[in-house]
Design goal:
This protein is an alpha/beta fold. It folds into 2 domains: 99 residues, ATPase, nucleotide binding domain (Nucleotidyltransferase, domain 5, 2-Layer Sandwich), CATH 3.30.420; 171 residues, Nucleotidyltransferase, domain 5 (2-Layer Sandwich). The chain is built from 11 helices and 7 strands. A 5-stranded mixed beta sheet has the order 5-4-3-6-7, sandwiched between helices. Strand 3 and strand 4 form a beta hairpin. Helix 2 runs parallel beside helix 3, helix 5 packs parallel to helix 7 and helix 8 runs parallel beside helix 9. The chain is globular, with a radius of gyration of 20 Å. The structure holds 5'-O-[(R)-(carboxyoxy)(hydroxy)phosphoryl]adenosine and zinc ion. Zinc ion binds next to helix 4. Its EC number is 2.3.1.234.
């Protein structure tokens, strides 16, 4: 059960924080009611209440935390706070019961780009991260510049099918001495410069070629850094997570690279890549098993660290 606000935020070209919180408070009880009904259970059947408490927009997080506390208080259930990114990683467990830590995971969302070793459930060693824009953020900004609208990732994914990824050479954003870190502001700026120069010269831009070439530059660096880490840390299992992990070209490139290097490749279905409550439920399940419990002082933490 997903209640989406995307149509509303599209009007503004991105998420408007106050609108997001207001929609959360308006919808949260209906969504919970429907999800319980779909699962054929009631609140009486639950063992614990899991909730995301960060990172993210504080207004939206507070709605969830307050709701979770209310249910937990009323039904005398343990409260388990979850990190949003732990949720994304845990989306992989939903359809792959054989997947157990340790494994390498590339997390690519609208707000994060992290390369981590999942050492145990909820236990991460961060190998690399973006120095500037997140991968999804770069997709969204480039999509806006081409005039594709919000959210841009899926639109670039689709438009790229019709384009030539070799048409334009964009920089790959490597960082000297940091083989697992990422930088996407360079490729984003290169796309914007390309568009500006074409406009000044009065040249037509082939949007599909541009989208495919940009996407290739981003995907190549994501795959190269991930496979380098897999080799260096002798990881046999490689997973992807986060909204950008639903990108078909990234999944194919990652699958091919894993096959070449003798690694097993895992990815959630697209519906579990982009933000969803199922992944938070799974993360909360493992935290609950480990004994994690939060008190009534649980708060929303917008910049919660992994
Ligand atoms: O994980 P997510 O749903 O939310 C965050 O936690 O940020 O990720 C959203 C991001 C957006 O930037 C969106 O453009 C991107 O994921 N995205 C994609 C695709 N689907 C969603 N990027 C590339 N290709 C896609 N198919
Ligand atoms: Zn997310």
């Amino acid at each position: 059960m997903i209640s989406s606000q995307i149509e509303l935020h599209k009007l503004y070209g991105g998420v408007v924080p106050e609108i997001a919180s207001r929609k959360h408070i308006e919808k949260i009880n209906q969504v919970i009611e429907q999800a319980l009904a779909d699962a054929g259970v009631t609140l009486e059947d639950l063992d614990a209440v899991g909730v995301t408490y960060g990172p993210g927009l504080v207004g939206a997080l507070l709605v969830g935390v307050a709701e979770a506390k209310a249910i937990s208080y009323a039904k005398k259930l343990p409260l388990v706070g979850v990190h949003h990114i732990e949720g994304h990683v845990s989306a992989n467990y939903i359809e792959h019961p054989d997947l157990e830590p340790p494994f390498l995971c590339l997390i690519v969302s609208g707000g994060h780009t992290h390369l981590v070793i999942v050492k145990d459930y909820g236990e991460f060693e961060i190998l690399g991260r973006t120095r500037d824009d997140a991968a999804g953020e770069a997709f969204d900004k480039v999509a806006r510049a081409i005039g594709l609208g919000y959210p841009g990732g899926p639109k670039i994914d689709k438009l790229s099918d019709e384009g030539n990824p070799e048409a334009i050479e964009f920089p790959k954003g490597k960082i000297e001495g940091a083989p697992y870190d990422f930088s996407f502001s360079g490729v984003k700026s290169a796309v914007l410069n390309y568009l500006n120069q074409a406009k000044m010269r009065g040249q037509e831009v082939n949007a599909a070629d541009l989208a495919a070439s940009f996407q290739k530059a981003v995907i190549e660096v994501l795959v190269e850094h991930t496979m380098q880490a897999a080799k260096d840390y002798q990881m046999e299992k490689v997973a992807v997570a986060g909204g950008v992990a639903s990108n078909r070209h990234l999944r194919q490139a990652m699958k091919d690279a894993c096959e070449r290097n003798g690694c097993l490749f895992y990815h959630p279905s697209p519906i579990f890549c982009t933000d969803n409550a199922a992944m938070i439920g799974v993360a909360a399940y493992y935290e609950y098993q480990k004994g994690t419990r939060h008190g009534w002082d649980l708060n929303a933490i917008p910049n919660l660290k992994l």
